[in-house]
Q: What sequence folds into this?
């Protein structure tokens, strides 16, 4: 349908067929405008999309200089596409293909005007960090979590500025409108917690030099030798990583009726199910409102970051014997059980995939000695014993260390506790007649024996919780496929599991041998300066990772043809990756919450293409 | 040949056929002994191996209680096997299969008596760490590298005891007979450097509590509340990780003539070439004396650990501009060029595989601020600038970060310098008529574009060094295959490379997603307590890693049938892994130096089996 357009071209009064080299117009000015307007309609019908048209009128002749598909906001794009279906210009399928799936995220969260627009107004970012959690926010600078809470209580909107964050800062992160850190990568504490809280966040802003004593922050390369102080205004764009001085206009999130219509068309067409990440009952409720067909990934470790739970988790990890440990694990079990009940209820019988704890254990521990004293007291141990226990958890490469099922099988009681919480929560719900579809996900599987061992633990717990076998709810076991070895043993794993969840982030880390947190040292140079790499493999599924996924499915389905498989992680929200998932025949994609509508649309587009 | 042996059995005078249930002996005592001696010879011939025989004589009747293949030292095993060939009892092939390839390492380095023997004498280890570098040593405790040098100069044998080591300790490690650290894993600084120096070393002895101020070390769980002091005697067994108080008898390394004979038989039979790791000219000369057919892995980064070179390396890494950096790189180039010339000369035209720098850059940097002042001065920069530059090199998971070709392509001049040093060294040698076979190895390849870019750099350097193309020496380019993605793109890589070197350590790390330095948190529990894993995959090639290697070869040979491939890393010295390499059809194995004779034997055994 699309053809090359000759420019400039003189127009006759009345519509000229596009592609016709020349035409003349001899008419009055009003007639000239009418001719252009008619021609525009012809062009839009020809290209099937709104056009930006540049023209000139000389000596009464209108000349068309340029025509191109009009740029528009996501908002406008959705409206135009739906309108054009009403007008009969486009089919529903064409309308679905017309909207950029990546742009929908914009609709659903606060944002700043485009940088080009800001630049035109003379506004440039002060510094740029990593876009750790999308959205935009303005507020007054505070340097301390307690201050954030205090100022917010007084009605101030605040931005928490920290060298990095740790579990001690979570109450401050909750109180702030946004968070910015000087260090850390896309999976740093600040990034992970902010995404979980839905807070806008910029991390790894290397240019920030923060002086916590003086309560100032100086920005290298900003051209200003003057430091910003506590109380000064700052604006963050968590979608681009830009940080600005002052309070910029933040555009609130919007929903349009047309979006619901477009989404309903997408949902009719797409084959893959659209799941959302949700780590809390609140997030599960939000997921449902965003059209999630289930929770594809509930990261249980994130439930431990609240202050009281964190303390219990630390005590459990640093306890030197099973008796002490089990007391604190019991506290955690109570909390998780309550959370799970709420999540099951929120999802009203839709699948809820709960991943067993998966985070390097050292990340739960405090950075310095101070909080260890309270832990030692609570455990009735000497400070030195607790310090040594903490020291034993330190790792050289924590992302590839003692985490996931490795921790679950070697820290006595840890996974038992989580499985008990899940099954008791399911029982609590079914006792009240509420439907539950529980999917237990095992992270960091490298060996079949790990899954065997875990199934044995699960069966033991099941016997504890249910006196006799129950058919009141569904409980399926699945493996995270995030290590190349797991791909290779997919046939064996399929004997023990009902579903696979590809962990895109970790499978990329291990297949490429690139720590995501450290990738910023060279990947940007590879992409932008050396031309060695076209796209960020942590955003767009790498073709070779996709090849491994294909091999995995082939091996697994040879053993269990009805095995369910899907993609989790940040790539689950990327349209290009979703297209690969469709090609591979995956059954679901699981996207971070704000990207879910885009993922549903991308799944439909992939089906159509 | 082997059959079940009935015990006890009474013997007739004269040889009885094994397997015969009963026999009687009526004879005098001397006749009884003679009967037993004859029977022994029959058994040894039956089992084709030396027998340990237990017997009793009651009422003039000799009763055989038990017979089993005799345990013996490696020394004795080699001698017995060779003797049995001379006596015509065994063929050469049978003799080769008779000796445990793993045991040869014992012959070539100092060792302690077996622990069972020590236990019988009431000697138990004080504590156990990781066996980081084999051999055994006794000496007086020192806590500081400078003290080690001073005491050694005074004729003392010393053991350097450190919390961990860094580049500042190397002169002390050289002066000491052995090194023990409280922290660190098998690839920690202490472990890597000690293996390079051929020093016995135990790392990660978590039980050691070292007080550097008081110059004492206390051992947890030793039952003694008394600390050891500077000057006290200590003995290390780097092959088992055992640490003992006092000076135990260290059995010196031995070579036996029979070993040379056995090795010559092995060399006639094996198909795979036997290369050695050698990072220094001394090591290259030693490799030759151990029968290396070439240097399979020269780790150039280890050449930077000497104090003056380390300073230049730090200056190069922390320089903020190309001009400053290139000055320090030039210093390193001179040093590397001299080393390479010596290595080429030592190897007399045999292949020398030089790996471009491959180590997380942060590992070259000092742990604390103090050494940065001298660097700042040398670079004519402010301390703060240098500190910030150092900070930028810190990584969350350094083993999966900015290392290998990633550093080579993004730190301007770094790989150019190394390639220049190699080619100039080759020119220096060929100018004098010395033959050179240079193989340039690119580490951490994940993308074909990396190899393309590196080949472009190499061609540029080649034009700098040689005015016109030379055929005076061979220069081949190879890729380390140590990331699963490299396995998958093997076909593409084979278009640009002449050989592949499988990096067993890293390929295991990435395929299994296990950081080797952190594996001790759970792998021992998996193996010893939970029965989830039969063998340590860092010692024995994992079957799935082997599968990936097989896939790699298939893809590569489809493109380049004459591609040469081999295995490097610690598994290169493991007989079980070498058997897998034979099955896969690899062309060479590259073993750590002390394991080379064992590797040559294992290669012959694999060929025979």
A:
């Amino acid at each position: 349908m699309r053809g090359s357009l000759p420019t400039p071209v003189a127009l006759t009064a009345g519509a000229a067929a596009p592609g016709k080299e020349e035409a003349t117009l001899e008419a009055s000015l009003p007639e000239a405008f009418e001719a252009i307007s008619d021609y525009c309609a012809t062009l839009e019908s020809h290209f099937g999309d709104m056009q930006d048209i540049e023209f000139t009128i000389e000596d009464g002749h209108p000349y068309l200089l340029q025509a191109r598909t009009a740029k528009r906001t996501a908002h406008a794009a959705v409206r135009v596409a739906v309108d054009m279906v009403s007008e009969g210009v486009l089919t529903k399928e064409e309308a679905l293909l017309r909207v950029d799936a990546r742009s929908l995220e914009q609709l659903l969260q606060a944002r700043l005007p485009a940088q080009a627009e800001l630049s035109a107004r003379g506004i440039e970012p002060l510094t740029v960090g990593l876009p750790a959690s999308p959205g935009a926010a303005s507020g007054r600078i505070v340097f301390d979590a307690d201050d954030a809470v205090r100022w917010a209580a007084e009605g101030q909107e605040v931005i928490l500025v920290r060298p990095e964050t740790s579990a001690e800062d979570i109450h401050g992160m909750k109180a702030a409108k946004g968070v910015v850190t000087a260090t850390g990568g896309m999976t740093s504490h600040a990034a992970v917690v902010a995404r979980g809280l839905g807070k806008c966040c910029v991390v790894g802003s290397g240019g920030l030099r923060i002086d916590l004593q003086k309560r100032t922050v100086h920005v290298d390369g900003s051209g200003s030798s003057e430091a910003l102080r506590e109380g000064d205004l700052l604006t963050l764009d968590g979608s681009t990583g830009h940080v600005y001085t002052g309070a910029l206009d933040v555009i609130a999130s919007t929903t349009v009726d047309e979006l619901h219509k477009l989404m309903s068309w997408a949902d009719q067409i797409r084959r893959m199910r659209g799941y959302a990440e949700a780590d809390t009952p609140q997030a599960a409720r939000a997921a449902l409102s965003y059209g999630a067909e289930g929770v594809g990934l509930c990261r249980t470790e994130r439930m431990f970051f609240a202050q009281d739970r964190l303390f219990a988790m630390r005590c459990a990890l640093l306890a030197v014997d099973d008796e002490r440990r089990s007391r604190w694990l019991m506290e955690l079990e109570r909390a998780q059980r309550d959370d799970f009940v709420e999540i099951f209820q929120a999802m009203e019988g839709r699948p809820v995939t709960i991943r067993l704890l998966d985070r390097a254990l050292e990340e739960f521990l405090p950075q310095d000695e101070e909080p260890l004293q309270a832990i030692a007291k609570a455990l009735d141990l000497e400070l030195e014993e607790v310090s040594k226990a903490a020291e034993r958890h330190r790792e050289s490469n924590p992302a590839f260390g003692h985490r996931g099922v490795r921790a679950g099988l070697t820290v006595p009681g840890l996974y038992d506790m989580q499985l008990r919480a899940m099954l008791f929560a399911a029982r609590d719900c079914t006792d009240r007649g509420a439907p539950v579809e529980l999917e237990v996900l095992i992270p960091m599987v490298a060996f079949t024996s790990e899954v065997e061992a875990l199934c044995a633990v699960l069966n033991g717990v099941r016997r504890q919780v249910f006196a006799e076998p129950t058919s009141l709810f569904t409980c399926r076991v699945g493996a995270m496929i995030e290590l190349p070895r797991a791909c290779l043993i997919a046939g064996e794993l399929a004997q023990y599991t009902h579903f696979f969840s590809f962990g895109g982030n970790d499978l990329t880390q291990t297949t490429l041998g690139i720590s995501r947190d450290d990738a910023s040292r060279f990947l940007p140079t590879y992409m932008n300066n050396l031309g060695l790499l076209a796209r960020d493999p942590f955003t767009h599924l790498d073709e070779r990772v996709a090849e491994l996924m294909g091999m995995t499915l082939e091996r697994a389905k040879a053993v269990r043809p009805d095995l369910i498989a899907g993609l989790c992680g940040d790539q689950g929200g990327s349209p290009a990756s979703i297209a690969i998932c469709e090609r591979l025949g995956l059954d679901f994609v699981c996207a971070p919450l704000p990207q879910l509508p885009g993922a549903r649309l991308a799944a439909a587009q992939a089906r159509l293409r």
Observations:
- Chain A touches chain B through 51 residues (CB under 8 Å).
- The radius of gyration of chain A is 27 Å.
- Confidence is low (pLDDT under 50) at residues 1-26 of chain A.
